[in-house]
Give the backbone structure.
Amino acid sequence: MSEYRSRVAVALGSGARFAGLHASGGVVRTALVEPGGRLQIEHTAVEDGRVESIVDLTAAANWDEREAADLYGVRFDGHEPLRPLAVHDLDLRSWTVPVRGGDAYQIAVGPIHAGVIESGHFRFHVVGDRILHLDARLFYKHRGLERAAEGHTLEAGLAYVARACGACAVTNAVAYAQACEQVLGRRPTAEVARARTILLELERLWSHLNDIAAVCAGVGLAAGAMEFTALAERARRLNARLTGHRFLFGSVAVGGSSVAFEVDEARDELASIRAESERAWRELLFNASFSDRLPDIGVVLREDAIALGAVGPAARASGLAEDARATAGLLAYDGFETIVPRRAAGDVQARLEQRALEVQQTFDLLASLLDAPVTPSECERTEPAGPIGAARIESPRGATLCIVESANGHVDRLRLRTGSYANWPVVAHAAAGNLLPDFPLINKSFELCYACADR
Amino acid sequence: MLTLLKDLRRLRRSLALPAPDRPRSLAVRHVDAGSCNGCEHELTFASGPHYDLQRFGFSIVASPRHADVLLVTGVVTTRMHAPLLAAYNAMPEPRRVVAFGDCALGCGVLGLTSELVGPVEDVLPVDLRVPGCPPTPAAIAAALVELAG
């Protein structure tokens, strides 16, 4: 075993989890997150266009290695077959898992879907109504944002991560800003940390309310979907009143924070949204035709969630007590306690209930953070950490890693590995064994972004 | 359930959205050609209680085969070029194309030239342009009312 592989194996063996892998100018870097939240980055040189795969050590590296192969031409020894991910090869056999046997057939769905849904292709291998296997082909929306950011100043690079995803704009921007600040030798003040934490939780609030609406829509309970859509709309209107943008675009900056707002109105509105959402949630719980549809479908077992590198509410619903907020030293999450549900069954019901629990937690966090007006603040100067900065931030969909490799104050290589990117393979895993008509519901119980996976 | 319906009825009364002044309807097919997901979120909310796009007779339909309007979000990526054209070619005539959001209009687009085809108007004849990053649900309703004429 090479030194690189053994370092990765040792880290994984001592409780670290895979956090991302990317190719960068002749090297491949693997990020691992230690139980305390510290990021460890290992690298190995690409020789003759090849490096050793680590996919046998952690299946979570599967997509990362395939992406590096497609976009950076690196071959991974030991990753067989190395199926294309970003390259849309027309030969079906090149990118789908072979399924053989009597009565097995394929159903192709997408890239254009029936509702207002982002573009992506699902290839279901089924027998009757039963899903044997799902090959998800994304990257239809690949805009090359990471590579397009190269050569820009660190400040200008922010726009590229923010544009990656409208639904995770704050998370992606905070992760990028923190990574850049390590490189620049800046440390967020308490006020910068507080402002960013408020923005992150405002993003989580509308997102979770929206995701509960999405599960209602997946079941076909229009009244629930509309109620939670209305609540999420109020959260977005509050965002617009506080920051001038419904999705909080432009509210995060590198090296400081410029947002400023009074908090009284926000506190009142949040208390009102909270009361109504709690009431609506109780109504959902007592609706038998709704709740009967949720248990025991799309199950992700705890050990599979670990092996596949699941993150966020989906991982916690499978019993993994992991939340990047618990170890976020540069944000205002002091005393944060990760929520793991009593019924961590890893099914649609558990993922829905997890969001409902986390919405309450977000209301609590916002109530305590919004105790004084939010004011602009500059980061403090500190020792630069070197040319590479890395930060991991909990998005509504799970931990998002941003790595910035800089040269002379410019972006040399940018890597944004979002919670959605980490969880897409988990969705495919959760679908297997279920009935095809349950897939939309299973998919909505994760409610991942395509945009921040494709970039 | 009854409580939810009662809540929604109360919300509807308090919002008191005006009824449309003319009977028109449009079936809209949405295609995401490479957006950031912001436009999709606002489009979904346009059907929510605060805007209730359906009261104007607008509905998002599942197939381009019975759509009047193709509403395109995002800059057109190389990988979405062919599916976008396939959707357009599947529509009956007359058909209208709405370029929805700044990216679809080619404003402030970020990305690698080799991965992008360009704004919607480079690919399809555009009838209506809806600016915004993303356009608000209110702007969506106003634009579609204008298109229905």
About this structure: Chain A touches chain B through 48 residues (CB under 8 Å). The two ends of chain A are 34 Å apart (CA to CA).
